[in-house]
Amino acid sequence: MQSDFWNTQFRRLKKWNKLFLPQHKLKYYPPKFVLRDPVLEGVYRAIAGGMQVAVVVISVSNLREFSQQLEQNQLEEFKQELKVGFKHIIENSNYKNDLLVVHDYYSEGLTFFLKINDEKQSVIHIEKMLRTIMPLLESKVAINHPYFQHTFDIGYMFIERNNNTTAEALHTAQQHAVAMAEKRVHTRYIETLIEIREIIQKQDITLLAQPIVDLATKQIKAWEFLTRGPNGTGLEKPLQLFSLARQSNLIYDLELLVLEKAFQLISRVGCTDDVFLNFTPITLGNKRFLPALESLLFKYSEIEPNKIIFEVTERDSIEGLTFFHDNIKQLRKKSFRIAVDDTGAGYSSLHTISELMPDIIKIDRSVIQDIDTNRVKESMLKGLLLIAKETKSLVVAEGIEKKEEAEVLIKNDVDLAQGYLFAKPGTLEKDRVVFK
Question: Between β-strands 360-363 and 337-343, what pairing exists: parallel, antiparallel or unpaired?
């Protein structure tokens, strides 16, 4: 009997042995054996096209309790209504081109996939989109189900493909996003919280430096310090690290660590050039920020405040931050300078510039890319240069990758530039820079 059992199992395995054939023999089998998931295909194409892809999970609180009041078919109708309603809202918004697909991978809410072009804007872009979309969705649910007391919990994660398949990377990101949304004990959320806290406690981050050059003389005038997480981990890339820090309410602690690391690096290598540091308004508007900065200046007395430029992203909101404007005034009194980052990316328009009157305006790569073949972009550049002239701001163009782009900038008298054309981010060392 046992022999018959194993013979049966062997025949079954033999029947499916084509699944384990070498790659060169698979061509003899018809295409119908290749299964394709349209979600996976969409994600793969977006990643292959150089985009970031984020999995966003919207968890509906009390859904299990609500489901007890409904028949199974009514619950399915509610979920479908939620899915269709969300899709309708986003497709009639400014974010319709970002949406890859809305899917019901997650049984207690929605999962949707976004494709985002610029790595630097990703976290802010998602949060601004959610601030726009979610009130509309909540209103829609409240009208259709007035007796359903609910809230939406949200989590997101970027799909990171290293040696994994797209399917594995998608699954990992989706599970992580669910954990961030639900924030349940014994989930990945707690693990992530502990992981980020450990990074902060152990100061396990590295700063790279990218030069900012004078376009006329090609001399290095400043550096932008860029953060990397623990080497060889999923949090090495700043996109993952900072997005999780924001969702874990640890962004202030992480950025304060970046500031201390920057002061350490400047002191250790004896850097005398200007240094640009990217900070969220959340940190710059924190009432603890100035006392913490004072403490660091006392500890690193050789740091010259007039050499430090705090970059504020134009895509991040400065509204409703009680201490933000007062802190900016105090920073200027101490001779620190303020830059507005990502100018021209098209989100918060010129509001941040008019509010801050920055010392430096950094023009986003979206304006610079292919500016040599796009007259509209050159016109945008000229408009931004006029604004910079009115505010008496120095101009830095970001993301220059081609000689032709640099030539257009020189023709328009742009002051400074940075990008791969000049150098990739590298390790700042005493008297020299080693570029990767």
Answer: parallel
